[in-house]
Write a structure and sequence with these properties.
Blueprint: H1 3-26, E1 42-45, E2 48-51, H2 52-55, E3 56-62, E4 65-70, H3 76-85, E5 93-94, E6 99-102, H4 108-145, H5 151-184
Antiparallel strand pairs: 1-2, 3-4, 4-6, 5-6
Helix pairs in contact: 1-4, 1-5, 4-5
């Protein structure tokens, strides 16, 4: 591994960590409907746990409503059961052809609970970024020990990895602020 490849690896790993945090934040409920709310729900389809998005069309006809239309009408009952078992806290309405989920407005207490969850998820993301920094710094020290880079380059590499960490922590902070504002929005 070289100086440049280590920096490239650092950016790639931190991008993945940031993407993971973003994916987790999309599944947190706000007052608005989002297809991401049902993305993680798995339906028992012929004995196989299958994501809802693979067996149904998901649409958002109104700001507070999600409509799920299974491609196979026989799976409708299983979709309803999976939604009821999930932690969404929304009762599905089944009209025989599709499932409607009406998103109720969040209470003040629920909003605060979701904001705290966002904060916790973002902190986990920051921890993942710091662990990545630690691993990369170890790799940089190994490069110096093996004689692949000089002492000055090692110090410079540590500094660039730290700068990358600060950049990605800033991105996590902005994700947290955006999601918290979206949750608190009435």
């Amino acid at each position: 591994m070289t100086y440049d490849s280590l920096l490239k690896d650092a950016r790639g790993r931190m991008d993945k960590a940031l993407g993971h945090v973003g994916d987790l934040l999309r599944t947190i409920r706000t007052s608005r409907a989002s297809s991401a709310l049902v993305d993680n729900i798995r339906v028992d389809y012929y004995g196989t746990p299958t994501p809802v998005s693979q067996l149904a069309g998901i649409s958002i006809p109104e700001a507070r409503q999600i409509v799920i239309k299974p491609f196979d009408a026989s799976a409708l009952g299983e979709v309803v059961k999976a939604i009821q078992k999930s932690d969404l806290g929304i009762t599905p309405e089944n009209d025989g052809k599709l499932v409607r989920l009406t998103i109720p407005p969040l209470s003040g207490e629920q909003r605060n609970k979701y904001v705290a969850k966002v904060k916790d998820l973002c902190e986990e993301g920051r921890i993942a970024l710091r662990n990545t920094r630690r691993d990369l710094n170890k790799q940089a020290d190994l490069l110096k020990k093996d004689g692949d880079i000089t002492e000055d380059d090692n110090r410079k590499l540590h500094g660039e990895i730290q700068d990358l960490l600060k950049e990605f922590e800033g991105k996590v902070d902005s994700l947290q602020e955006e999601k918290s504002a979206e949750i608190l929005e009435v």
